[in-house]
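Recall that a protein's primary structure is simply its ordered list of amino acids. Everything else, from secondary elements to tertiary packing, is in principle encoded there. The following example makes that idea concrete.
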Amino acid sequence: MADNLTVEADDLATAEGGELKFGASLMVSSGVLHDVMNTLRSRSPAARLDIVVNHGQHLCQLLVDGDLEFFIANADIWANDIRFAITPLTPRPASIFCSADHPLVHNKEPITSTLLLNYPWAFINLTATTENHIRHLLNLTENTALPIGLNCNDFNLLRHATLKSNYLLFTWNDWLADDLKEGVIVDLKYQLTPELPQEIFYLNYAIVQVAGKTLSPIAQRAITLIQEFAQKPIPADPAS
């Protein structure tokens, strides 16, 4: 409580300034965070932003250690953890992507779930939750092994591997928007047979903070902005 009072006093003393330390997963950093950061800077020009971009487990540890006020990530694994207060945000569109030169793009046969398993898959920070989501998405049994070819936390490496090989990349749409518009990467969900419901391609994410802990005024402003931008309609196909 003393720490909370100190943070609030420092923030009030510096008017629209203050220091904000929060975290964002790699996927979130490529989407709504850009708009939030720009707006926050314009409204609080004297503020110092300290943003940590990393995978959810690392951000959670920083939060517990008191190094972050909150973080934004897929929070499914902490949904029942009483240590945290979790605020769900509007799910973000995701899909299965490949290069425009991939054999599946030029294949005249229907693209089925079974056919997708003939190619290696690429992921960013693969978790058991994501694996289960893929199995559900493709209507696979829980014991079905996914052909994982690449798992890393580097966007550039994943993008290069997808463009230059036969990897199938499962990820959020946000950071591939330019490639989709240029036609060098293809969204496969529209070519699957049978066609799958579009809503199952959306991934959940949320704001995670320590339960019962008072946030600084600038953190509260940031969370309000995040919720506002997250509620804006997002086309499932960024090329549209």
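Residues 11-15 have pLDDT under 50 and may be disordered. The first strand starts at residue 19 and ends at 24.
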